[in-house]
Amino acid sequence: MSQTEKTRITVEIYGNQYIIVGSESASHIRHVALMVDEKMREIHSKNPALDTTKLAVLTAINAVNDYVKIKERLEELEKEVHK
After folding, report:
1. Mapping DSSP to helix (H, G, I), strand (E, B) and coil, where does residue 21 land?
2. Contact present, 33 and 18 (Cβ < 8 Å)
3. In Å, how far from its chain's centre is CA 60?
4. How much is the average pLDDT of 57-63?
5. Most CB atoms closer than 10 Å: which of 24, 47, 53, 61?
6. Given pLDDT bands bounded at 50, 70 and 90, which one contains residue 3?
7. How confident is the prediction for the chain on average, in pLDDT?
8. What's the CA angle centered on 2, arms 34 and 10, to 5 degrees?
9. Are 6 and 22 in contact (CB under 8 A)?
10. Is 76 inside any structural domain?
11. Which band of pLDDT confidence, cut at 50, 70 and 90, is reported for residue 4?
């Protein structure tokens, strides 16, 4: 897929439909949306009183936390390889 081509796909996350436009494949976008949906449902099962906005923010915090940990680990591994 060239950089100018965009995938447009409708996904469902936590009972709401969203149109996602991106350069990734449709299967990638569906996979990411499924992961977000699963994380929101997991957090909701532990905190059923949360409204959707707070649930979405906690989901984003969890995702970024995971990203930061993985990025830090990658940097550590890259340093080891370049020694």
Report:
1. strand
2. yes
3. 8
4. 98
5. 24
6. low
7. 94
8. 30
9. yes
10. yes
11. confident
Paired strand residues for 16: 13
Examine residue 2 and state whether it is found in any structural domain, yes or no. no
Range of the domain at 63: 7-81
Mean pLDDT of the region 57-70? 98
User: At residue 1, does pLDDT exceed 70?
Assistant: no
In terms of residues, how long is the chain?
Answer: 83
Nearest in space to 40 (alpha carbons), one of 18, 22, 65, 59: 59
- H-only helix segments in 1-83: 26-46, 52-81
| Residue 30 included in any domain | yes
pLDDT score of 10:
98
For residue 19, is it within any domain?
A: yes
- Structure-block tokens of residue 69: 């940990």
CA distances (Å), origin 42, targets 25, 58, 81, 82: 26, 11, 37, 39
pLDDT at 38: 97
In the chain, the number of structural domains is 1
